[in-house]
């Protein structure tokens, strides 16, 4: 993975000329320092901790940056709620936040790195036999929907969701069970998160996703305004993310993560949900 990031960055440097080479040399000449990192920790593939190991779509990018920026990464352990983690990051407990949304009050005290690193497209998941009958968002407002409690949407999207009949479900087993049993009509989900959760249960063939996203949320990398590294991080990360090749690499990493999970769980026997008697005929 790091070899691929090296190739991408070398192409960027060649295309950018001598100025980019100077910036690269400046990165290499820094004294090694510790960089405290946090982000989504229970929202794979954007980010998760499993057995105290961090993984997610931003990890190859930030590790490549740290290697050439002479930083040692310190992924902060999960010791509080996600919301409290972000608030503490804003106070300086973390230098970098891997994944956050604009127009969202939780991230107001953090500095956004522009442009966005990737998008989080929110789609509708339905049974294949029913998704063809959906013609507009107005149709959804007459139906019953649900969202996984782990989903992380922007403040803008959360405001829009108030127009719908939505319940929040604690886990994927119960969420998809409600859909298959007909207790709900649809699910709002990140196409990446939703695809992975369905695949892990062996339900991917039984779930249809809308062809177009309902909302597309830009996902940014953030910096604590209290970080002693903020100026250098802001300048260097922005320069990197301004390159289309870098953003395309992050998107391809996301697609590869999702594809790998689908392949890993292909053939998994899905849960035998008990259907209502009127559906079991």
Number of domains: 2
What's the CATH topology name of the largest domain? D-Maltodextrin-Binding Protein, domain 2
Instruction: Extract low-pLDDT stretches.
Output: 10-26
Give average pLDDT, whole number. Answer: 89
CATH class of the largest domain: Alpha Beta
How much strand? 15-25%
Please tell me what the overall shape is.
Answer: elongated
**What oligomeric arrangement do these chains adopt?**
single chain
Query: How many strand elements?
Result: 12
Name of the CATH homologous superfamily of the largest domain: Periplasmic binding protein-like II
Structural class label: alpha/beta
- Gap between N and C termini, in Å? 50 Å
Secondary structure: helix percent:
40-55%
Total of DSSP H or I helical runs spanning 4+ residues: 11
Radius of gyration: 21 Å
User: What is the annotated CATH architecture of the largest domain?
Assistant: 3-Layer(aba) Sandwich
Element pattern in H and E: HHEEEEHEHEEHHEHEHEHEEHH
Short descriptors:
281 residues; alpha/beta; D-Maltodextrin-Binding Protein, domain 2; nine-stranded mixed sheet; three-stranded antiparallel sheet; 12 strands; 25% strand
How would you describe what is shown here?
- There is one protein chain.
- This protein is an alpha/beta fold and 281 residues long.
- The protein folds into two domains: 2-118 and 218-263, Periplasmic binding protein-like II (D-Maltodextrin-Binding Protein, domain 2), CATH 3.40.190.10; 120-215, 3-Layer(aba) Sandwich (D-Maltodextrin-Binding Protein, domain 2), CATH 3.40.190.
- 42% of the residues lie in helices and 25% in strands.
- It has eleven helices and twelve strands.
- It has helices at residues 2-16, 18-28, 59-69, 82-93, 128-131, 137-141, 155-160, 172-181, 191-200, 230-241, 244-264, and strands at 33-39, 42-43, 47-50, 53-55, 71-75, 96-100, 110-126, 144-148, 165-169, 186-190, 208-209, 215-224.
- The strands form two sheets. Strands 1, 5, 6, 7, 8, 9, 10, 11 and 12 form a nine-stranded mixed sheet that branches. It has a three-stranded antiparallel sheet with strand order 2-3-4, with no helix packed on it.
- Strand 8 (144-148), helix 7 and strand 9 (165-169) form a beta-alpha-beta unit.
- The radius of gyration is 21 Å and the shape is elongated.
- The N and C termini lie far apart (50 Å).
